[in-house]
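hey can u check if this looks right to u? its 424 residues, i copy pasted from the old doc so theres a chance i mangled smth
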Amino acid sequence: MLPRAQVSVSDATALVQPLLDDVRSRGAAALRDLAERFDGVRPHDLRVPQSALTDALDSLDPGLRDSLQEAIARVRKVHEAQVPQDFSVDVASGAQVRQRWIAVGRVGLYVPGGLAVYPSSVIMNVVAAQAAGVPSLAVATPPQKENGGLPHPTILAACALLGIDEVYAVGGGQAVGMLAYGAVGSEPQDGAVLCEPVDVVTGPGNVFVAAAKRLVRGAVGIDAEAGPTEIAILADAGADADLVASDLVSQAEHDPNAAVVLVTPGEELADAVTARLAERAAATPNAERVAVSLGGPQSAIVLVDDVEHGLAVVDAYGAEHLEIQTADAAALAQRVRNAGAIFVGPFSPVSLGDYMAGSNHVLPTGGSARYTSGLGVHSFLRAVQVIEYSEPALAAIGEKIVRLAEAEHLPAHGEAITARLARG
């Protein structure tokens, strides 16, 4: 009975597939046509010139630059700590298995730019990939008519701060296609490569971006099919109704399909939050968007018997963002199994994680937190096992391997062992 946003990635795939096919066959020419169709501008430079990146950084407000630098430092500190360690195990004398973590060679990072501007998403994508050791990074983000076909200058400035010089003024599902398949120059006779294909595509986006990621999966790796943002708050009667309401509104302003859910055993708190929601929703600059989100079938206040019941409910929901504003919130957070990220106590709002907590804000939505994680260093790494046995180590288990091969009716497997042992 818990509410969910009614957004179908499956339905969107039928609309997105022709776009991907077009990009794959016509490259840059298709990208310009699609930008004109969906973004209202025909970019002259699909790859953003270095001068535009430099100019954006030079003209960046000093206060905003300081905030971006602080966010970068905190996110980098957390993500560098995520890097897993290689290991080596001596299974027996002369028998060794090692595991190495190897970064993918090239990644495409998508940064949305529809209803809002997200330099924070540049940071979350780029820093995680850099911490993993990815040698080649490309960022794609929508062109804007008001910026002459270039992406928003704050996005460009964030890329420049992070040392990213390969940035494309390409948005939507077509950006995913360009990153996955690569793209050549704009004229049929121009074989120059605009964008080399990547190994992994990551980053949030609308339903069409999610559909494109589903369609290219297999050709490349993806992080997840991110859907509309979600916040669930588990609060008891002692929670501050105004703080709860402010956090619900903060996520509702993302998207008309954003899901905001309060789970509480306190009827008085529910009533107080309802009243404060109405006041805050009416006063916020994005009031229209917030009103649609709060009034949608994906948003609700859920009354439960007690906090224990509430814990079961939020675990079943598996929210992208889960706030816990209860007594003993930290202890309760330890018992949560399903959430993209958990925000503990009244001074850890989701907005903190969106920007500067150090955690990553690209998180699983739609209940997928039951089986997957948010974006992180692991999104760009592969574990490769290295096996090295000496002749005596192989001989010690040779007969056992042969018996297993015969049991599976794969005699040649066993013969690959006996061929070596016969030489001893």
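The radius of gyration is 25 Å.
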